[in-house]
Design a protein that fits this description.
292 residues, alpha/beta, Udp-n-acetylmuramoylalanyl-d-glutamate--2,6- Diaminopimelate Ligase, Chain: A, domain 1, 2 domains, 5-stranded mixed sheet, globular
Length: 292
């Protein structure tokens, strides 16, 4: 079959091609091998270390398998601010731990006429942003990156108990001083603390994110819990009642975003080990609260 172009060149013919033309040809060839969002997800599944369970949580919230990827940003929460920062940094795929559209399942049926939803969605579309959630399977990995990341940020990783999961045996210190140190290390403007500021604590536990009501089983075994958030009629009330009952227990609440974002920092480092084609960056969501 005749063709108007000859794509196969001999070594002598290739040597005769001007350098700039050869470079252009090679650039075009590499661009044809664009990394897709589907390939990114496939590699995550391949390196996950646990079986993929499917479900509606860890799925695409915008874009699809064929969407080309120029760069990847990881974050705990794909807020409008994070998405804008990702786009400005040349990252058009956002791997988010938590929802994009304000409900656990990203059901947007009640938001179609909402002006905030429309603005956020329009920006996503205008900038060809791919958003993929990585929640259930990230927590399924062992060790859980969100727990490891928070422990590292607090400087607690060297104090991890060898026998008790999530427990850390710290040098004895007053609850007030521990709370100040947590606030400083996580670089947040405000935290919430329950317990006597002068009580001495040593055995601590981490409950990142919105942990279910484990406080009643965890708090009796430790002096203090550092948690993302707890429902105020569950863990918060239990910790408060424990002090009224004469148990000197502490609870430090740092906020959901802050408590799990360090895990997405580790996630970015992990992705870099098997996705070399595009830059990968952690974009922290930060702390949404401020102190007046």
């Amino acid at each position: 079959m005749k063709t108007s172009c000859r794509w196969m060149l001999s070594r002598r013919e290739f040597a005769a091609v001007p350098v700039w033309l050869a470079a252009t040809a090679m650039t075009g060839f590499s661009q044809n091998k664009t990394l897709t969002a589907g390939q990114v997800v496939d590699r995550i599944k391949e390196h996950l270390g646990v079986p993929w369970r499917g479900g509606q949580t860890d799925t695409f919230k915008s874009g699809d398998l064929e969407s080309p990827v120029r760069g990847i940003a990881t974050t705990v929460m794909s807020t409008f601010d994070v998405i804008k920062r990702a786009a400005a940094a040349g990252k058009n795929m956002v791997v988010t731990h938590e929802p994009t559209f304000w409900l656990g399942n990203d059901d947007v049926s009640n938001f179609t006429n909402d002006p905030i939803y429309q603005k956020k969605l329009q920006f996503i579309r205008d900038n060809n942003i791919v958003i993929w959630r990585f929640h259930d399977h990230l927590h399924a990995r062992q060790p859980d990156m969100s727990a490891v990341g928070l422990a590292q940020a607090l400087g607690w990783d060297k104090y991890a108990s060898k026998d008790e999961p999530r427990v850390y045996v710290l040098p004895p210190t007053k609850l007030r001083e521990l709370a100040k140190d947590v606030e400083k290390r996580l670089r947040i403007p405000a935290i919430r603390v329950i317990g006597d500021p002068n009580s001495v604590v040593s055995r601590a536990a981490l409950m990142q994110g919105t942990a279910p009501f484990h406080a009643s089983t965890v708090l009796p075994k430790v002096d203090v819990i550092v948690a993302g958030e707890q429902r105020e009629w569950e863990g918060v009330e239990y910790a408060f009642d424990a002090n009224t009952a004469g148990e000197r227990k502490g609870m430090i609440l740092v906020g959901h975003w802050v408590s799990e974002d360090q895990g997405m920092r580790l996630c970015a480092d992990w992705l870099k080990t098997f996705i070399p084609e595009v830059p990968v960056e952690w974009i922290p969501a930060g702390d949404p609260f401020w102190r007046p």
